[in-house]
Each structure stands twice: as structure tokens, then as C-alpha cells.
Predict the structure of Guanidinium exporter.
Amino acid sequence: MAWLFLFLAGLFEVGWAVGLKYSEGFTRPLPSVLTVAAMLVSLILLGLALRSIPLGTGYAIWTGIGTIGTVVFGVIYLAEPATAARVFCVALILTGIIGLKLVSNT
């Protein structure tokens, strides 16, 4: 269950990262409220996951999911460039996430 919590926490991290963009510096009420809510849910789920997943592993995977998800969102919805270098770097992050999961004892 901890790994599910961690995965969901990563997805909510994507949500609040994207929300930061749309809140325009917390000047737009609805996006701001949704961003803060996503932050809270993400942190609560991360806290639950860290009950049994080692801190370094959990935090790295959480931020990795958030990073990859945010980059993918930017490419698909914000017309950010999907250069070979960016795709390669995202692949490195994904490789690290998979590696940490594979070597984890939990």
C-alpha cells in the first residue's frame, strides 16, 4: 500500500506544480485553492508512504514522479520543447526511479 500512496503522492505533486503555473503567483483564487489542496494531499500521502519506505528512496521517487509528470504536461499542454536532450534527461530520471524501486527492501 505504501508504494500506491507514494505513486499517488507523486501525481498530486504534478497537480500542484501545474497549479502553481495557473494560480499566477497565488493571485487567482480557484487555482490557488486547488494548488494548496493538491500540496496537502501530496504531502499527506508522502508521509503515509514514508512509514515503510526509506526516506531517501521515497523522496527521490516522489520528486521524480513529479518532475517527469510536470515535464510531460508541459510538452503536451504548454507546447514546451521535447528536444532529444530533454527526453534523454527524463529517461535518466525514470531509470533512477525504476532502479530505486528495484533495490528497495519494501
Observations:
- The longest helix spans residues 55-77.
- The mean pLDDT is 96.
- The chain has one domain: 2-103.
